[in-house]
Amino acid sequence: MATPVFKMTAPLAGKLIVVAAVFSVAFANDAAQVDVLTKEVVALPGQSVNLLCRVSYSINFCQFSFPGITTLSNIYETENAYSNNIKYHGSGFSNGECGISIEKVDESNNGEFKCIVSPKKGERFMDPGVISVIIAKAPQRPILSPTVAGSYQIGDILQTGCIVRDGRPRANISWTLDDVPFIDGVQQLRTSESGSDLITVSQNISRRLSTTDAGSTLKCIVEHIALRPQDSVATAQINVEFKPLPQEDPLRIYGIKIGETAQINVTIYSNPLPKIDWIVDNDLVSDSSYDGSGRFHSAPMTPLGKATYNATLTISPVEREDTEKTFILKARNIRGETIYNIKISTLEEPEGVDFGAGGIVGIVIAVIFLLVIVFLLIFAKATNRWCFGDRVEHRGKPRSAGESSDTESTNEGPHARGKSAKVKNEENPESKESTPMTRQSIIPKSFNLKSLLPGGSKNKDKVGQIESGVTLDPKVEEEKPLQSKINPTEIVYAELSLGPTTVQENKPQHDRTEYAEIVYKKQPIENQMETKDVQSAESK
Predict the structure, then answer these.
(1) How many domains does the chain have?
(2) Which residues pair with 360 in a beta bridge?
(3) Which residues of 480-507 are buried (b: 16+ CB within 10 A; e: fewer)?
(4) pLDDT category, 522, cuts 50, 70, 90?
């Protein structure tokens, strides 16, 4: 068979070269790699260390290079693989593991260890695995620089730093103030290396001082595997000076009992220690002394820690007049003087109300809710909305046919207040045409307003003006009876104001108002003129 011949053009040759390169890279990437379990090991001198390299296939040999030694050393799967101090470590060459175990490390073992294993058949050696072994060396003791010495005043800025020199590996720094972690004002950690592999670290802090810092202990704490605890801390005490701090004026002491011995204790915040004087009834009672009467004694100042002191005045015995006095305490130091006024009382100390954060938040929410409700009510009232809009609509709604003015009031005993009566125009069934009514003809002949009043015709109360403007006249009784059927839309409302039926000297008078509905039918213009002529003739 003839061998096929391929004619390769220049572009095709270029493509094949590229493909070959890609396959070569892929093959290299798929090759086995030395796996290092731990890339860095930190140990103290005298400790044991295990170093292990591993591949995915069985190996024929294992070699290691040690720090400072350029030659390779063969490691065998025997009890004494390299020396009495170094032995093989791993599960065997068949499992692809190459490792060593150093029984006791020292300074000579500080550095890089490299492991090399046999390659697969037909392949090249892999790059060696690298393991860094750090033999720890303790740094120097930390120091504070600049030193926290001397005295400060309130508002001064404290600036200092902590330096830890020549450690291996690098040390870490943390700060505390009175054993509480100090974070604010801490700057970034800085490192520097000398000619060797030893590392120096430093860190600065700054803080604005207040009265609470007086007497506080600042600590720089170093963390390092080789540093002893007693050598890992640098401390300094902060000295903030201030005059005795003022307090509530006056200070009140409760629970004093008349006739018994009592003590007035006042806590004073001051740095340095203040000197005190008590003044009682213009008498000076110095520290550790009595007054002229011997009833008042000033005890020595008692330190309570961190610029806090207690001043005590003993009263033996307490007299009633003492509860009306004002005891004066003067405390002074190099920064100034403060005067305290003290009152004593035989009452028990009142209990304060502590709402707490949750209670305060609840109160604020309730107040805001109340303000929103008040605002909505004012807004609704001003814009005639909601319930206020219904009232306006009701007031502006015209009266319906037959609706009476005012509602009937409830009865109050035998004499009812606010009675209402309706007088209707009734049509004459025998007549086909209804007679037009005048303003005076709306009240029938047989109708008597006094009959509606309590007491009948014997009541002498006067009838007031009717809302419609019609004046009741005695001649109205001579008119004809009202027709039986009246158009409901032609009802006129009237109000009768009555005076009291009887007068009693010992009982208050009660005004009574009675209501009646007067029917008025609008008449043509011609009939109105005739009615006016009749009225004028009758008046003559």
Answers:
(1) 4
(2) none
(3) eebbeebeeeebbbbbbebeebeeeeee
(4) low
